[in-house]
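Reminder to self: keep the SMILES exactly as supplied, no canonicalising. Ligand is 4FV.
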Amino acid sequence: MWIGVVSLFPEMFEALTRQGVTGRAVEKGRIDLEFWNPRDYATDRHRTVDDRPYGGGPGMLMKVDTLRAAIHDARSRAEIATGQRPKVIYLSPQGRRLDQRGAGELASGPPLVVVAGRYEGIDERVVEADIDEEWSIGDYVLSGGELPAMVLIDAAARLVPGVLGHQDSALEDSFNDGLLDCPHYTRPEDVEGRRVPEVLLSGHHGAIRRWRLKQSLGRTWLRRPDLLEGRTLNDEQRELLEEFIEEYAP
Ligand SMILES: Nc1nonc1C(=O)N[C@@H]1CC[C@H](O)C1
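Structure tokens returned for the bound complex:
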């Protein structure tokens, strides 16, 4: 998957390009990440990249001409590198809320150009002219779009085939089937008297699968009942959830 990033702080993205699953994916060429910095398009002595808002008010906006030049170059490069027109995404609290389904859509869609804002954001005419989709990682205000951009890129990149060493681990993640993840355990078997559930030591794979599904359903029921609304459970899921509820509140 090809992803272009427009950011004033490209070095922040080393957290993605040099570490962990995404770092290995970049190294293996499963993910191509390229960067454009609006500051490289500044022509004045101070390399200005921000500008004052019309109508006054606190803070600055990203300067239109340097931002647009960076977006345009990233978009052109995407078309040369992939032969496809990219989807240009801007991260802001005004965008569509990112969730696992959205990450899946992005992972299976066209190449991306991800625009990370700074200051108070970007001029609305740049949104209208150059941005295809606005996305948000949550209802809070951050100091820059770089962390949201890295969250979006990480969530999507993990779902690109071949990125995860063991593809199943993505499928068993929370939210991949719309449920919260089950509890996980590793050595030792006893931590200050807290033991690993016996079923996980049994080697009985069918029983282990059912236990994990029951725990996922039960946790979702307890912590995020909204995720079960409107969801049709199959016979096994309904039976396991009923068992969990019975045990939880006999
Ligand atoms: N929540 C979010 N989800 O995506 N982006 C944000 C976010 O807070 N962006 C900041 C607003 C102005 C600043 O430029 C960057």
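Points to follow up:
The domain at 1-163 is CATH 3.40.1280.10 (Alpha/beta knot).
The pocket of 4FV is lined by residues 91-93, 117-121, 136-138, 140-142, 144-145, 148 (CB under 6 Å).
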